[in-house]
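We treat protein structure as text, and this decision shapes the records that our systems exchange. This encoding replaces a full spatial description with a residue-level series of whole-number codes. Below, we set out a record of this kind in full and without editing:
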Amino acid sequence: MPLDAQLLGRDGAELAGFARRAEAAGFARLWAPELHRSATVPLAVAAGATARIELATGIALAFTRSPFTLALEAIDLDELSGGRLVLGLGSGVKRLNERWHCGPYDPPVARMRELVAAVRELLRAIAAGEDARSPGRHYDLDVVGYRRPGGAPRAAVPVWLAAVRPAMARLAGRVADGLLDHPVTTPDWVRETLRPALRAGAERAGRPAPPLAGALICAADADDPAAARRAAALTVGFYATVRSYEPLFAGHGFGDRLRGIARAFLAGDADRLAEAVGEDMTDRFAAAGRPEQVVERARAWEGLADRLWLCPPHHMQSAQETARWQDGILAAFGASAAAGG
């Protein structure tokens, strides 16, 4: 099972350095999240610092960009990396799209289907030096007369869709090259919810199910495992406050904790938030503690996911602390990554 890492850093030098170390440690892919940085610019830095590792937007917020902007970013990154780009797209949540980015969101599945079609048509047309047409209700693309000098390095790049709920997972099965799991799902959620939906979408499209990348919050520290567990609990608590994920937490038996977690989160009290999450909820949604414990926890994904994306805790963590958890992931999993899983 290939292992993937998350591309984070306080500046360009840290981004480049981590990318080089992840490649040397044998990691297969770097996912660049869109939270404190864009999902695209850090990959340009990583492209110049590495030679083999795949580079993926993980994830780029799909609805906050036009199809044309997404296509140009994909072409640029694919060119800079020598054809190593994977375009990971996600809808994000409704409030983020509408209040932070002041853009449309509903209906997310239909919108995503049309967006993927439009981006793929643009990539094809630009590579071929042709006009592009992708009709739709939400994205009615009609590009006439545009020609990019040199075309594009590839007429298509792999498109992976992020999914937490069955509807988007079915869409990934229909149209995507892969499905990217969310860091706070569990092997049970993948087995019972995402995998069946992915297969159903693929069957509807008359094709094999695409690969699925599992995701796991990881914090490993041999000297201070308690700090690692606390950091993981804080990030689990952050996600537990997002309304879109309530069914996920409730479905695992933690619905009665969500109100207390929300109160602690709004108070900005880290100790109270970690306590509200609790040891059992942390263990359910993260791998944290000593390196050997974290590696053993990750083995739950073997035979279930086609690859595993290892994510450091980020909520209520300083940049130095996040770098510590990144280094812990490389140290704990480096030998396994170099061996191919």
Observations:
- The chain is about 50% helix and 15% strand.
